[in-house]
Amino acid sequence: MKVLLKSGFALALMLAAALPVLGGSPTAQAEKVASKMLDFDKALTQASAQIDATLGSMNAISSAPGSDLAGRYKEFSSQVKKLDSMAQKAKSQSQKAASQREAYLKQWEASQGKIQNEQLKASSEARRNELMPKIEAIKTSLTSAKETFTPFMQDLNDLTLYLGNNLNPQGITGAAELMGKCDTDGAAVKADLAAAQAAIKDLASSIQPGGAPAK
Q: Is 15 strand, coil or helix?
């Protein structure tokens, strides 16, 4: 009886250990990776829209009459904080998507190494080589976006600090040059985000089961 109980317990442990493996099939992993990438794409869309909202509230300060300056400044400050929050969310989504993407590629490489048929092995390797440029395109565009966004965000924060203590016509005049720079840099950030989104959608479509073939 004890032997049977021990055997049953051992079998239960084996099944429990096997469940995550069964749930992590290559197809399921590909779907999961594609889903996370598209979640990241949505976060970038929201961030891009927030850049417009933030710059709009910034520029509204310049044209505000004295009686409206406080309200316009409060709105601008709120939009800057919201943009920073969205940027942090996008960063988190990026890290999750990248982590799952790398795990997927390692799993793929390991499984393809077991293929014995030379024709299928060559075809699988060609498929992987087609996808790698798509992955590099994502990395390149995101690196560029980070390099443009970091000083852009700092300039916006500087403006909120400066205007908070100089909310008058003279202060706005003094901030005009930096405001113009923020408009220019904001457009550059949005262009980088758009490039990243195009690359993300391209790769997600390529690895999604039943999706478009790699180009």
A: helix
Distance of alpha carbon 62 from alpha carbon 175, whole angstroms: 9
pLDDT in tens, the chain (215 residues): 443 333 333 323 332 333 333 345 667 777 877 787 888 888 889 999 999 999 999 999 988 777 789 999 999 999 999 999 988 887 777 777 777 777 777 777 777 778 888 888 888 788 878 888 888 888 888 888 889 999 999 999 999 999 999 999 899 999 999 999 999 999 999 999 999 999 889 888 887 776 554 44
For residue 5, the SS3 value is: helix
Strand segments (E) across the chain: none
Cα 105–Cα 90–Cα 42 angle in degrees, nearest 5: 85
Q: State the Cα–Cα distance between residues 99 and 114, nearest whole angstrom.
A: 24
Q: Which residue is associated with the tokens 């096997």?
A: 18
- Parse the chain into domains and list their residue ranges: 27-207
What secondary structure letter does DSSP report for 167?
-
As a whole number of angstroms, the distance between CA 114 and CA 45 comes to 40
Tell me which residue of 51, 75, 55 sits closest to 189, measured CA to CA.
Answer: 51
Maximal CA-CA distance, the chain:
90
Q: Which two tokens stand for residue 187?
A: 């457009």
> Rounded to whole angstroms, how far apart are CA atoms 178 and 191?
20
pTM of the model: 0.76
Is the separation of the CB atoms in 209 and 201 below 8 Å?
A: no
